[in-house]
Amino acid sequence: MSDEFLLSLYRFDPEKDERPYMSDYKISYPETGNMMVIDAIRQAQENDSTVTFRRSCAQGVCGSDGVNMNGQNGLACITPVADVITRGKLEVRPLPGLPVIKDLIVDMKPFYEQYEKIKPFLDNEDEVTTGHERLQSPEDRDKLDGLYECVLCACCSTSCPSFWWNPEKFVGPAALLQAYRFIADTRDKQKRARLKKLNDAFSVYRCHGIMNCTSVCPKGLNPSKAINEIKKELRRIG
Amino acid sequence: MGTFLWLVQRFSSLIILSYILFILISYFVKPYHIDAQVWFSDINSIQMKIFTSLFLVMMVGHALQGLKAVEDDYFTERTIGMFLAQTKHLAKFLRYSYRGFIGLVIIVLSYVTVFSYLMEV
Ligand code: SF4
Ligand code: SF4
Ligand code: FES
């Protein structure tokens, strides 16, 4: 293995540039040989402080550093360079389908608007009789596994062609996974209303089951399965 | 509405599939390749006229949903502008031309079906 590789970064500053371009940086592997994409971007930033990139936790928890690496969406902090590099070159671009604010940073507003639409909170007006919290059986709690762990990184929704073309009308895999998280929660009392709100030609049914979402989720979740569960529930209520 | 359209799509595909299978199987069972007259009288029978009309209606219903999805995805300012920003204002024109073309195809298809097939004795 060579001890260097080429990192090509998408650059665009709307205040200065007429169109986007790619900048190349020579990156050297650390002695251990292990390197995450975030470390490579950091090295590029040391040479060129104008490279703009968003991140926080650096351990796959905050979901703020979703990018497209050699064509595949993922979190830069938990993606090893070795997993995405091809022929000594790694191209990093912003998440596709969202407006670029600067370089690798996208405007997540359209994504959050869909999240807001599905009302991501327990809706239950019944009085709490236990004095402290709403109880749930361990079996009912198990139904939420694989749903609540989402970090809202948008890697799935921005890899979905249906979301690229109709981000205002198609809820997208991330928000649909969260919609199902509340539909499946026995403590929520709005199951029917939630389903009814999704029953149009776009919100859920625009998903054609191609499963890009599931194949890119850095947390190993399965939005496509959750979408199918919503479709099943919709058919059940007619 | 979403579930209803989904059901239409599934139901129509069943009718379409059964019509195609029926035609294919009858080709092997009946002596159509020897005697064209048998084919003519079969396809012009009242049962086949009903089945064929049902097939065509289902085809149109099924195809319209797919074609609408193509329109929603591709004939928009966003998608057209993605390929060439200066052409995005053409989206509306393209969308209406596309609808017009599909409408025309449906009218021609219905005309031919009614006057050259269903009303033929
Ligand atoms: S399975 Fe559905 S939501 Fe997931 S990428 Fe495909 S169309 Fe999008
Ligand atoms: S489902 Fe996965 S890819 Fe989608 S937003 Fe959540 S963590 Fe990210
Ligand atoms: S920086 Fe927080 S998930 Fe990558």
Topology (SSEs and partners):
The complex is a heterodimer of chains A (238) and B (121).
Chain A lengths: L3 E8 L9 E8 L8 H11 L18 E4 L2 E4 L5 H4 L4 E5 L6 E3 L2 E2 L2 H9 L20 H5 L18 H5 L7 H11 L7 H8 L13 H5 L6 H15 L1
Parallel strand pairs in A: 1-5
Antiparallel strand pairs in A: 1-2, 3-4, 3-5, 6-7
Chain B lengths: L1 H28 L6 H8 L2 H29 L2 H7 L7 H28 L3
Helix pairs in contact in B: 1-3, 3-5
What does this structure look like?
The complex is a heterodimer of chains A (238) and B (121). With 238 residues, chain A is of the alpha+beta class. Helix content of chain A is 31%, strand content 14%. Chain A has 2 domains: 4-106, Ubiquitin-like (UB roll) (Roll), CATH 3.10.20.30; 109-237, Alpha-helical ferredoxin (Fumarate Reductase Iron-sulfur Protein, Chain B, domain 2, Orthogonal Bundle), CATH 1.10.1060.10. Chain A has helices at residues 37-47, 81-84, 109-117, 138-142, 161-165, 173-183, 191-198, 212-216, 223-237, and strands at residues 4-11, 21-28, 66-69, 72-75, 89-93, 100-102, 105-106. A 5-stranded mixed β-sheet of chain A has the order 2-1-5-3-4, with helices on one face. In chain A, strands 6-7 form a two-stranded antiparallel ribbon. In chain B, α1 crosses α3 and α3 runs antiparallel to α5. Chain B has a single domain (2-120), classed as 3 helical TM bundles of succinate and fumarate reductases (Up-down Bundle). Chain B is elongated and about 60 Å long. Chain B is built from 5 helices and no strands. The longest helix of chain B has 29 residues, at 46-74. Classes of the chains: A alpha+beta (238), B mainly alpha (121). Chain A binds chain B through residues 161-162, 165-166, 198-206, 231, 234-235, 238, and chain B through 1-3, 5-6, 69, 72-74, 76, 78-79. FE2/S2 (inorganic) cluster binds at residues 55-58, 60-65, 75, 77 of chain A.
